[in-house]
C-alpha cells in the first residue's frame, strides 16, 4: 500500500463504538412474523365493524391533561399514578399521552358537533399509554380497539355493543371468554349506596390498605375495584349497588339482559364490577378469560351518559367498550392458532445483473395480477451464485422460483420451478404473456 493511500484509510479500530440504544421499558416493538397476526386481527375488526355500520375515527395521541382529569375522575388509578403527562416546552400547555380512547373521542365529538344530526356509531384502534409495572398482558404502551355509540340512550345499543364484541370473539376463534355484567345505576342511586358502602368499609378499616383508606371518603366505589387479595372478602361482603337501583335503572338492566338472552349470549351478574373510570353509569360489563392468568380481562365497557356534558358538550347519552389488543392476541396464541402464512408466491432468481430490467418488469406485472413476488437482491457487487440464490428462495418459503437465466431470456422465456413439491418440477413460460399465466402462481389460500 502506498504512503498516500495509507493516510486516507480511516483508523477504524480507534473509532469508539456507539453505545447501543434500547427502547423504553414496557413499550414493545411489533415485528414480523408477529405483526402479521396484528394485521389479520385489524382486518377482521374492520370487516366486522362495517357489518354493524360503525365508522372509523383516528384521533390524536396527545390530549390536554385536563380532559382525562375531568373525564376519568381525579381519584382513579389512571389519573393518580399512570399518566404520562408533560408540559409543552414551547407554550407551557399541560399535555398527556392518552391512557384510553373514550375521553378523546368524546372531546372530538363535542368539538365537531358530530351529534348535530343524530346519534353516531364509531370505532378506533391505536396505542394507549399507562405507567404501570410491565408484566405479561400489561405494558406501558399497549393497544386498544374501541367501539362507541353516542346519542342513543336505549338498552338496545348497550346490547348491540355486547353482541358486536361477542361476534368478534367468534370471528377471531376465541374460546373460553365469559361475560360479566352489572349496573351502576344513576348518580342519585349511587349516592344512597355510597353511605352504606362507607359504613361497611369503616367497620372493616383494619383490613383496608393505604389506598383504600385514602379513597374511603373521596371515592369509595373505586375501592371495590381493588386488586389487593387481602381486601377481597371485605369487598365481597359490601352492600350491593344493584340493591339500590330504582325502577328505571332496573328496567334498563333487564332490557339489556332480555336481548342477550334472546340472542343466546351467556353472562353472569357480578355486583362488584365497577370498572376503573368514574364516567360510567347503568350498564357495565367485562369480557374475561381464565387462560391469561391475572391479566384476564380482555375487554371492558359500559354506559357513560354524563361524560359528554362533563367535557362541555350538550348532554347526550353514550355507551362503549375497549379491548386490549395484546391480551386478545395472547389468547389467540395460547389457543395454538397458527400464524398467517407470510411466504411469497414466487422468489425471483436473477443470475446476472444484466437481466434485472426485464426481470423487474415481469415482477411488476405479476404483482399487478395479485401475485406476491420477492426479488433476490445482491450485495452491490453482483447477484451471488445460483446456489446461494436458490437457498434464499427455499428460505423464503415461496411456492415457486422464477429463474431469469440468460438462456431463457434469449428465448423470451422464464423458468418456473416448483419449490414445495419436493420433486422440483419445472416448466417454461413466455414473458410476453405474463398476465395469462400469473394466476397459476397464486396460492389458493
Ligand atoms: P386492568 O384491571 O387489567 O388494569 P383496566 O380496567 O385498567 O384493566 P380498561 O381501562 O378497562 O382496563 O381498558 C380496557 C382493556 O384494555 C383492558 O380490559 C385490557 O384488556 C386492556 N389494558 C388495560 N391496561 C393495559 C395495559 N397496561 N397493558 C395491556 N393491556 C391493557
Ligand atoms: Mg388498569
Q: Features of this protein?
A:
445 residues; alpha+beta; BirA Bifunctional Protein, domain 2; Rossmann fold; 2 domains; 5-stranded mixed sheet; binds magnesium ion
- Oligomer, anyone? single chain
Helical stretch count? 17
Helix content: 25-40%
Query: What is the CATH domain class of the largest domain?
Result: Alpha Beta
Rg over C-alpha atoms, rounded to the nearest angstrom: 29 Å
**Number of DSSP-assigned strands:** 16
CATH topology of the largest domain: BirA Bifunctional Protein, domain 2
Q: Estimate the strand proportion.
A: 15-25%
Classification by helices and strands: alpha+beta
The overall pLDDT, averaged over residues, is: 94
How does the overall form come out from the CA principal axes? elongated
Small molecules bound: adenosine-5'-triphosphate, magnesium ion
Integer tally of domains: 2
N→C terminal distance: 59 Å
The CATH homologous superfamily of the largest domain = Bira Bifunctional Protein, Domain 2
Strand order of the largest sheet: 1-5-6-11-10-9-7-8
Major sheet characteristics: 8 strands, mixed
Instruction: Specify the CATH architecture of the largest domain.
Output: 2-Layer Sandwich
Short structural summary:
The protein is of the alpha+beta class and 445 residues long. It has helices at residues 3-8, 34-51, 65-72, 77-82, 102-111, 155-171, 187-203, 210-215, 220-223, 232-236, 247-262, 307-310, 325-334, 356-368, 386-396, 406-410, 434-437; strands at residues 55-56, 62-64, 84-87, 94-97, 120-129, 141-150, 177-183, 268-269, 281-289, 297-303, 318-324, 346-349, 373-375, 400-403, 413-418, 426-430.
Amino acid at each position: 500500500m502506498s504512503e498516500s493511500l495509507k493516510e486516507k484509510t480511516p483508523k477504524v479500530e480507534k473509532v469508539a463504538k456507539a453505545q447501543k440504544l434500547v427502547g423504553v421499558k414496557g413499550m414493545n416493538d411489533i415485528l414480523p412474523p408477529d405483526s402479521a397476526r396484528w394485521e389479520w386481527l385489524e382486518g377482521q375488526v374492520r370487516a366486522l365493524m362495517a357489518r354493524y355500520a360503525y365508522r372509523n375515527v383516528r384521533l390524536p395521541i396527545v390530549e390536554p391533561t385536563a380532559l382525562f382529569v375531568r373525564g376519568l375522575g381525579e381519584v382513579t388509578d389512571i389519573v393518580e399514578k399512570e399518566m404520562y403527562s408533560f408540559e409543552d416546552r414551547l407554550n407551557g400547555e399541560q399535555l398527556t399521552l392518552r391512557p384510553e380512547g373514550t375521553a378523546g373521542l368524546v372531546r372530538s365529538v363535542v368539538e365537531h358537533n358530530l351529534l348535530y344530526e343524530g346519534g353516531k356509531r364509531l370505532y378506533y384502534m391505536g396505542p394507549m399509554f399507562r405507567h404501570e409495572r410491565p408484566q405479561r398482558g400489561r405494558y406501558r404502551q399497549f393497544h386498544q380497539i374501541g367501539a362507541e355509540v353516542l346519542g342513543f340512550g336505549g338498552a338496545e345499543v348497550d346490547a348491540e355493543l355486547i353482541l358486536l364484541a361477542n361476534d368478534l370473539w367468534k370471528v377471531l376463534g376465541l374460546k373460553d371468554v365469559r361475560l360479566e355484567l352489572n349496573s351502576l345505576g344513576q348518580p342519585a342511586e349511587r349516592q344512597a349506596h355510597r353511605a352504606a358502602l362507607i359504613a361497611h368499609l369503616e367497620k372493616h378499616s383494619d383490613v383496608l390498605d393505604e389506598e383504600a383508606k385514602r379513597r374511603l371518603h373521596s371515592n369509595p366505589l373505586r375501592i371495590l375495584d381493588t386488586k389487593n387479595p387481602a381486601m377481597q372478602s371485605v369487598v365481597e361482603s359490601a352492600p350491593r349497588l344493584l340493591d339500590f337501583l330504582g325502577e328505571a335503572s332496573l328496567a334498563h338492566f333487564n332490557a339489556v339482559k332480555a336481548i342477550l338472552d334472546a340472542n343466546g349470549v351467556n353472562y353472569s351478574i357480578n355486583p362488584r364490577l365497577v370498572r376503573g373510570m368514574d364516567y360510567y353509569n347503568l350498564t357495565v360489563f367485562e369480557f374475561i378469560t381464565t387462560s391469561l392468568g391475572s391479566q384476564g380481562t380482555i375487554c371492558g365497557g359500559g354506559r357513560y351518559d354524563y361524560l359528554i356534558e362533563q367535557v362541555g358538550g350538550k348532554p347526550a347519552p353514550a355507551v362503549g367498550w375497549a379491548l386490549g389488543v395484546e391480551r386478545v392476541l395472547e389468547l389467540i396464541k395460547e389457543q395454538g392458532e397458527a400464524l398467517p402464512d407470510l411466504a411469497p408466491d414466487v422468489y425471483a432468481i436473477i443470475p446476472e445483473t444484466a437481466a434485472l430490467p426485464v426481470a423487474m418488469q415481469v415482477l411488476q406485472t405479476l404483482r399487478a395480477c395479485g401475485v406476491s413476488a420477492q426479488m433476490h437482491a445482491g450485495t452491490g457487487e453482483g447477484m451471488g451464485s445460483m446456489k446461494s440464490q436458490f437457498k434464499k428462495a427455499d428460505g423464503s418459503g415461496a411456492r415457486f422460483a422464477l429463474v431469469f437465466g440468460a438462456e431463457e431470456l434469449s428465448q423470451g422465456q422464464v423458468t418456473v420451478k416448483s419449490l414445495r413439491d419436493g420433486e422440483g418440477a419445472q416448466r417454461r413460460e413466455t414473458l410476453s404473456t405474463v398476465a395469462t399465466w400469473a394466476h397459476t402462481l397464486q396460492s389458493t389460500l
